[in-house]
From TrEMBL, chains A, B, C, D:
HAMAP family for the chain: PurU (MF_01927)
Encoding gene, per UniProt annotation: purU
UniProt pathway annotation: Purine metabolism; IMP biosynthesis via de novo pathway; formate from 10-formyl-5,6,7,8-tetrahydrofolate: step 1/1
NCBIfam families in UniProt: PRK06027.1, PurU
Lineage, top ranks: Bacteria, Bacillati, Actinomycetota, Actinomycetes, Micrococcales
Function: Catalyzes the hydrolysis of 10-formyltetrahydrofolate (formyl-FH4) to formate and tetrahydrofolate (FH4).
Top-level EC class as recorded in UniProt: hydrolase
Keywords, comma-separated and alphabetical: Hydrolase, One-carbon metabolism, Purine biosynthesis
UniProt protein name: Formyltetrahydrofolate deformylase
Active site, renumbered: D236
GO biological process annotation, one example: one-carbon metabolic process
Length: 291, 291, 291, 291
């Protein structure tokens, strides 16, 4: 069974992500600590953006019998080995445990339903804890899958965000905005304390503001794209996780461009969510390293 | 032999492009005139962006024995048939005659050499009349192919454009900017009187100004693109002919991104030049119809 | 509203497909008959594989007020105009009427559910008359959408095909095999009398027989593909409608290759079904012309 | 400067590829030996096809001041550390040294010229030691680049292979068949002792034998592909390094399909050659691991 065997949870497997200033010896220290505990490394990716003091990134997936029990000691030893000599951040992720995800949606259902079906089919290592929407339209569909649906109107933004926090805090590891057409405030993002992934359409060249597909049509673009990114306080400017495009032509109406865009949006979003849930994405400044 | 048998000139074949306000009956009139002259339609594309008075576009490729001799009468009849009842523009293009093309380049050779090799291999229905550059670097390579090379320094922009006009006027049907890093003035474009195609890098999102690949690297883009477009007075804002992208990752340095960009640039540019030389591109407002 | 405005039915729009030996004048005759009836051509594609007596293909989409009422007379005139002078086949398709489709499935649900969701979202101009399966697994899901589900076991192949005919004849315009793992007999296909579209995985190079993804894994393929085709008596050898691929690598287990294959299968199948329902596919010998 | 900064040779950088049966501790041993010598790991990829005794693959790129001088001792220590406890194969590659490559070609020039231009532009970390052909057609072009051209007729196959060995042995690290239309014998491949990379067209489904593009045209394929692979005694059955496809349609003649195929062939071949020269490809049974 491969660690990329996506969607299947991996018993007694965990990932270790290490991130910081590059220095000789990091890989050796990490590998030694893991080997000492009898962990077998099954995948290892490492990247350095400049060996002379640049940033260093490493993701290791290992198998360790009885990981849950061994984990505290392993963490303690790694802390001792790394923290003193190196100035690094690291995190362990138990790959046998699904991420708990909340999906936010508005009226468009294509991204929401795609995530639900993929999760149900075992293609995403996550559970869907709830769907939150500012429209009642999809309540029945969502509840038909046995997933809680919460309607939170957004006319009063402060009240809505308070309600969101009440629903989410402690309950989820990730929030996915599946074409949720509301801006999240910086204080909300800070209070939330878990990552938020968003999907938005992308064009060459970019079309900003309302009615992007109409503008793209008028400009005769030949490609329609989508970008999945982490949400930061700068709307649509967060670190990019994944992007893709599909071809378009003069034959496509603005409505057809939007439909093609929907197709590529849901593919890009599902890949970004998968990779995040597999702990394969490392944030660094305004970019991501995706192993 | 198919009309898409690209790069081979087609004896006794011509294309007719018709463009204007959509009205019932246009296709019938065009087809009847062609049929009366014994022309056999071998390809026909038609597009209407709104049947209720929108814009109408048609490209017909036909075979007509002895086209060169029959052409004046054919044109006269079509003029009579169309001009009176319909408010349309049209043009014939003799597909047995190669386009005469000037290529402008600066220091990057990837697009220039790609066009030269493709032309030499018979993949483009054109002759390369000359290469014009503001740098002497590629003189020897270009002349090695038997193509005239003209060095026109651009320190004095007015003098340079005057020299460009002297070289080009009457001699070429198309100018291709193959990574030519100089802006062409509006008066120059007007005096030139033939289309100009440019290639430039494109990103999702867009990075404006200098060092785009460095900016793209900092932002962690996952796609690198290129756009070929007709040059208008708005730099890089002309009607798009073709676009494409390649994938990128955190492993790619800014230099590697630029090399991948070069690969996609030359592919996109060669497709745009091919389609233009086959008379398959129709300009309409700020967009193109590519049949 | 464009004729490519896929999924939306087009009131008072129809397509005319003409197919036969190429001769001068066909386009003119067709266009004249349509113009005489006041039809406005909104899209026209034409292809000739050899102007000197090769095969000719034309698809015309036109708007004609009150098409349903005018249609018989239009057909009669076209018959008179074409049948006597030209040896051609043609067909009209009313683009305001959805195709009636039966979907056959076995245990895999990815293609079936993708078609159901797209149809529900208005992306496919069709109704789903029924789902037929040799396994009961998906009965509940399918019926949850209000679609009849029929379980037809296939241990007794003759009995199964008799039951299939009883269900389908007169009720459907198209059968889609959405990963239906049973071979249809030639007599059945003949008796059925409507087209059947199938989807199957495809590889470079091809892997025939059982466990194709395992074989592809062993051989280290870098691309995973899918092919949608019309079903003929030669299994998996029918005329190809659409194909596509996704990248793969050594990191992907055979199970992951199968999941990626599932993704591309459903995309390819949905495009093939869409184009068929829009009457954009013309069969010719062992190939298709897709306008 | 990144180790993926392709085409630029990397002073004092080397790669270490390790390959064998997976066992816990390999990564730690390798990393420790490198760290002890002051080597800084700048890239590390590791793959295990089954942690429970499957195959293990690792590629490490490291910077080590004065690598050429330190190398023998490093190798000796690694040998001691790995050979006794683990049953592994490994190899070092000095990334500051270009590979010496011979290109074999016949009459088609697209792959040959693409490699020459890319090498000249610094996109490939290799030198082209010679071009060998069974046709004189390209002698002048090749020699114009300052590259030796050897004409070796192949009527007498044994004599030709003897001449090939005389030219190649000791002089090259890699042979690239750039559309060389002759089969190499098993004894020749064995005597040669360096890898051979070939490019061939690929289709979905596969068309075997002569005139593949005509067959693909008759079958109406929608994709045209190419596969680069190592040459083994089974013609066209060697381990795949890279594959790609381009779209095709009914509009494309067999000649146009061949031209599109040529475009994808040269892209796929140049990527395979690049990755091989960067020592990123590991052979394993009938497949490759490409890091």
């Amino acid at each position: 069974m491969s660690p990329r065997d996506q969607g299947l949870l991996l018993p007694d497997h965990a990932s270790l992500v290490v991130h910081g200033r590059d220095q000789p010896g990091i890989v050796a220290v990490v590998a030694s600590v893991l080997a000492r505990h009898g962990a077998n490394i099954v995948a290892l990716d490492q990247h350095s953006d400049d060996p002379a003091g640049g940033a260093f990134f490493q993701r290791t997936v290992f198998h360790l019998a009885n990981y849950a029990a061994c984990h505290p000691l392993l963490e303690q030893e790694l802390d001792a080995a790394l923290a003193e000599d190196f100035d690094l951040e690291w995190r362990f992720t138990d790959l046998s445990v699904p991420k708990r995800v909340a999906i936010f949606a508005s009226k468009s259902d294509h991204c929401l339903l795609d995530l639900i079906w993929r999760q149900r089919r075992g293609e995403l290592p996550m559970t869907i804890s709830m769907v939150v929407s500012n429209h009642p339209d999809m309540a029945e569909d969502v509840r038909g899958f046995g997933i809680p649906f919460f309607l939170v109107p957004t006319q009063d933004k402060a009240a809505a965000e308070a309600e969101h926090l009440r629903l989410l805090q402690g309950n989820v590891d990730l929030v996915v905005l599946a074409r949720y057409m509301q801006i999240l405030s910086s204080p909300f993002l800070e209070a939330l304390g878990v990552p938020v992934i968003n999907i938005h359409h992308s064009f060459l060249p970019a079309f900003i503001g309302a009615a992007p597909y109409r503008k793209a049509k008028e400009r005769g673009v030949k490609l329609i794209g989508a970008t999945a990114h982490y949400v930061t306080e700068d709307l649509d400017e967060g670190p990019i996780i994944e992007q893709d495009v599909v071809r378009a032509s003069h034959r496509d109406s603005a409505a057809e461009l939007a439909r093609r865009g929907a197709d590529v949006e849901r593919q890009v979003l599902s890949r970004a969510v998968l990779w995040h849930c597999q702990d394969r994405v490392i944030l660094h400044d305004r970019q991501t390293i995706v192993f």
